[in-house]
Structure formats: C-alpha cells, structure tokens
Amino acid sequence: MRQEKKILLGLAAAIAALTGVAVVRWLGGAPLGVDSAVYRAGALAVLRGQPLYEPLLALDPKSALELPFTYPPSAALLFLPLAVLPGHFAWLLLAVGSVLALWSVTRRFACERPLLTLCLLPVLEPVWRMISLGQINGVLMAMVVLDALPVRNRRSAGVLIGLAAAVKLTPLIFVPYLFLTGRRAEAWRALATFLGASAAGALILPGDSIRYWTSAMLDNRNAGTVDWVLDQSLHGMFARLGATSLGWYAAFAALCLLAGALLVREFHRRGDPRAALLVTAGCGLLVSPLSWTHHWIWAVPLIGLLSGRRAALMCAGAVFSGTALAVVPEGGHRELSWNPVETVFGNAYVLSALAVGAVLTVRMLVRGRLARPARRVQ
C-alpha cells in the first residue's frame, strides 16, 4: 500500500512538472513539442481543407522547422482534438498521456520492484526524447500492450492494435504476432479496425488518401538523414557502414523476421507472452526503414521485465541511457567516417538487439536439439 502511494505521488509530481513547463513556455511564447506541433498542424489542415502532404500552413516554423506530415490520413482525423488546443497544451496532453501510458505498461512488465523501474524511466533516452518532442509512441505502445496482454478476456481485443496502426503503420507488426500465438480472431479484428479507419480516411479525405497511398507513404524525403545516428534501424546502420545497396538490409531484415517468428512461437509455447511481445517489437524496430531513438520506447517494458535481474537491468539501462550515442560525431554525414569503436557505440541500440536476438535464437535451437529423443540403434 505504501509503495502504491509513493508511485501515485511520483506520477502526480511528474504531471505537475510537465504542466509547469507547458505554462511557463506558453507565457513566454517559446515553442514546445516538435512532433506534437506537426500532429496539431495536420489536424488544422483537415479542418481548413488544406492538403496534408504539402507544407503545412498551420505549422509554426519556430517550433517544427517545416517538418512534413508523414502519417496516414486516418491519423490526422484521430488528431482532431489537438486542433482545439494551443500548441503548448497539445504537447502537454501528449506528455501527460505518455506518462500514464508508461506506467500502464510498466505495471504489466515489472513484476518485481515496480517503483525502482519507474524511477529509472527518466534516465532512458527514448523516454525523455519522446516526451520532449511530444511524440505519441508511448501511447501507441500502451494500446498494443493493453490488447496483447489483457488483464481479462475482452471481445474487443485487437481493436486497439488496429487503431494504433491507423496512426502509424509500424504497429501492423503485431498482427502476425497475434496469428503466431493462435489468436486469429483478434488478428482479424485488428486488421478490420485498421482497414475500417483507413476507409474512413479515404471517404473523408479522398485526395489526401490517394496522395498518401500512392506516393507520400513512399516519399524519400528522409533519405538524406538515414545515416544519422538517431536512426537506429538496420537500414540506418548499413547506411552508416556505407552499404548503399538495399540487398544487405533486405537479407538481414528477412533473417530477423524469421528468427523473431521462431522465438515468438517458442516463448508462447513456454507461457511467456511478455517476452514474445518484446521480441515482436524488437523485430519491428530493426526492420523498419526508419527507427528513430524515440521509437525504441519499448526499452521501458524491457526494463520492467528485467527488474528482478540486476546485471541484465544494468546493461539495458546503460545501453538505453543514450550515452554511447552521445559521444560519437553526428550530423552532416560525419557518421560515414566513424572509426570501429565509434561504429559500435553509434549503433548501440541495433547491435544490442541483434546480439540478444542471436543469443536467444541459439539457445532455442540448442534446447530443441537436446530435447529430441535419441534414435535407437538398430
């Protein structure tokens, strides 16, 4: 009871601090929340009948540097509540939602020492970067976790994953997870929700929908930043290594997906759905064409899962503190001239995920081989 009280006080203090930041920045006229400003500008474009995939006219250049709207039209419809708020309070809404979402996820993963896990979260680079940008990744992660690890059976299971995918396409990776774990009805429900939301976007915003699904979704505007250190994906790592051909990326992505599918089935067979879900999330981050460091917010449930293993917890905390990424030269394509040590540090998230995945896969294969009954000698 005392621990729960401390946790609630900590959450209240965090929300109060975020509110103070928003109010002070609002009174001072200083911009706040790069990505939340883009979400709000997209919603305002819908209300004003302006194109989504042209320069956003409602975007304040001081706060978001003319960033494009890179989400499906259905996402702009879901962002409409942000349009009625001043930009600073749109950021505050997402920041508070992220804090509550992170606690919701932590409760399901940190069976041991949840208070210690909660105290570690502000140290994680994906957490503070997500909140400072006003990103929605934490809320989307909580939606996936609530669907994938329900406290009780729900007839609507799968809907939240479908809605998350309607905001960002990357949560679609959890549909195969549902199929692999035998939850076919939930998988079909997630797909139906995603397709329904996309259809609603097409009906309400037909021009933007045609533009998104035929060209904007594949727009190469981020190609110049693929080698930036903050893109912690396989694609980004190979770009920093100078491998401009997509062959290496495609081959490693296919291998990761295959190993990930085997591990998901194995963890499901062993009755460990949390590990199976984290494997799926890790695969999605690795194979995505772009995985900015704030997309690695799945470090939060990982920290929770490891809360009872001190050595593993320390290692994960060290990796996702972002210290390794902060000490390497970055920006202006300086990543292309890294030495071997800088290459290891600058790809810390990717290499750590690959190393853990390789160890888990080898252990799974060895266990499977040892579990086979020996053939009788005739």
TrEMBL record:
<comment type="similarity">
    <text>Belongs to the glycosyltransferase 87 family.</text>
</comment>
<keyword id="KW-0812">Transmembrane</keyword>
<protein>
    <submittedName>
        <fullName>DUF2029 domain-containing protein</fullName>
    </submittedName>
</protein>
<feature type="transmembrane region" description="Helical">
    <location>
        <begin position="187"/>
        <end position="205"/>
    </location>
</feature>
<dbReference type="GO" id="GO:0005886">
    <property type="term" value="C:plasma membrane"/>
</dbReference>
<dbReference type="Pfam" id="PF09594">
    <property type="entry name" value="GT87"/>
</dbReference>
<feature type="transmembrane region" description="Helical">
    <location>
        <begin position="75"/>
        <end position="103"/>
    </location>
</feature>
<feature type="transmembrane region" description="Helical">
    <location>
        <begin position="246"/>
        <end position="264"/>
    </location>
</feature>
<feature type="transmembrane region" description="Helical">
    <location>
        <begin position="156"/>
        <end position="180"/>
    </location>
</feature>
<keyword id="KW-0808">Transferase</keyword>
<keyword id="KW-1003">Cell membrane</keyword>
<feature type="transmembrane region" description="Helical">
    <location>
        <begin position="348"/>
        <end position="366"/>
    </location>
</feature>
<keyword id="KW-0472">Membrane</keyword>
<keyword id="KW-1133">Transmembrane helix</keyword>
<dbReference type="InterPro" id="IPR018584">
    <property type="entry name" value="GT87"/>
</dbReference>
<dbReference type="GO" id="GO:0016758">
    <property type="term" value="F:hexosyltransferase activity"/>
</dbReference>
